[in-house]
Amino acid sequence: MRSALRAAGYLAIALLLLFILGPMLVIVPVSFGSSGMFQFPPSGFSLERYGQLFADDRIMSSIGLSLGIGAASTVIAVLVGVLAAVGIARGGIPFKGMLESFFLGPLIVPLVTTGIGFLIIFVPMGIVGSPVSIALAHSVVICPYVIRIATASLRQLDPVLEEAAIVHGAKEGYAFRTVVLPQLVPAMISGGLLAFLVSIDEYTVTSFLIQANTITLPVRIYQLVSLDINPVVTALAGLTIMLSFIVIFVLEKKFAIHKYLEM
Fold first, then answer.
1. The domain containing residue 176 runs over which residues?
2. Which residues 6+ apart lie within 8 Å of 262 measured at CB?
3. pLDDT tens-digit profile of 192-232?
């Protein structure tokens, strides 16, 4: 009876994984198809769509813009996120649990609401449609990922090391820079890369802030699907999926990022 329940549990997990990964398992083979239409399974193997992808100036411009915005917003999110995590995990401030929940608010509030809020803020400032406005908005959306990972890492650190440095004459700031901060580097890298991937993928908030000359990658993908029905979008999606999996695999092998996500 127990073995049957265990087998049923494994089957349920396998079906859930298949349901979640199903679109990715379809789009990658289709991206290597030789047909001029969307076809699964593909009738042949070809790299033509990937060649068309790199030859398309509009797509390459959107990729460059998304990478630049992702890098800028990630730097901001890491700086703010680490400082917030230190205050939450180490600061002697009241209502730390409520404050932590407040910082995770962008994950809870609907992104449509967030996008409207940024639009209201940026219109009087005259920066709607600029890469600066998109980067600032993305930094708010992705900051909770850095805070969550950095906070979990700080709670796992042994405070004895920092206390020993202070006992031996080091000032608190120096002890933090030389003892705590180096131990936070894996969490900063993991959180930063995860936040970068989320920024690259962000569509809802971005759609409120773009103009004709600042179309990011997700918006460009939507245009290719809804307006052109261009098969080259499968190559773009396939490349994004493969690079994302490579980044996550490297992070897990190098830094074991799952442990920073544990409560």
1. 59-260
2. 152
3. 888 888 888 888 888 888 887 888 888 888 877 777 666 77
